[in-house]
Known about the structure:
Strands 1, 2, 3, 4, 6, 7, 8, 9, 11 and 12 form a ten-stranded mixed beta sheet that branches. Strands 5-10 form a two-stranded parallel ribbon. With 271 residues, the chain is of the alpha/beta class. The chain is built from ten helices and twelve strands. Helix 2 crosses helix 10 (256-264). The longest helix has 21 residues, at 2-22.
Amino acid sequence: MKKMVKIVVVLTLFMLTVLPNSFAEKLVIKGSTTVLPIVQKAAEAYMMQYPDVKISLSGGGSGNGIKAIIDGTAQIGNASRFIKQKEVDLAISKGVYPVPFRIALDAIVPVVNIKNDITNLTMNQLRDIYLGKIKNWKDVGGTPGEIVVISRDSSSGTFGVWKKMVMKKKRVIPNALTVPSNGGIVQAVITTPGAIGYVGLGYLNSQIKSVKVNGIQGTEENTLNGSFPISRGLFMFTKGWPVGVTMEFISFVLSKKGQKLVKQAGSIPVF
């Protein structure tokens, strides 16, 4: 009898400790490094509120986020741009119908090394710098010195918006230094005196210098009133209409509490 009681106790402890983790709900989120700081804050708060939910996060760029929901390797794909038609076509060919949720607004801000004396560039000047037509800071009113062009890789939503709005779909100079994330651009600009790059609002800090565009500073106010010329929405995409923990997490991000976290991450709330 005592032996049977011991077995029951052991099985009970097993049920209480091991099985809850086995049945914990898991949510995999991949994609945009611009959206990542928002989702990191939201995931931390959500898991504090719902400890039975485990959220796995990774970056990799907007293109990889959308690819992940098409391939079924993630429930949510983050993107700092809207889905492309070729991605829609690929998804539909695989029986997947992507659903977008706009969770925030953002501006893409040109940034230079903190020691650079440039404060403003026009859209035309930015385009010519990234085309390689302008190669020296003296040609845009700065201290003489070679311009080091830093850009994002082609899977980046930030790059996609920059190419469309600034480059007018023209190609960035081939010898531009290409980095895989907003954080990579920040680090490159910090360590390279002649560098110019571009990042989302959430990545601006005191170690780099933001540059006005057409005389307009990239801020939340100027993005909302439409005066800053390089702005975009930030999205979460799902494979069809989301259900369960996927829908609950997106609803959390769009809630009053979630939108406060959007602001804390440096982006602009939609509500």
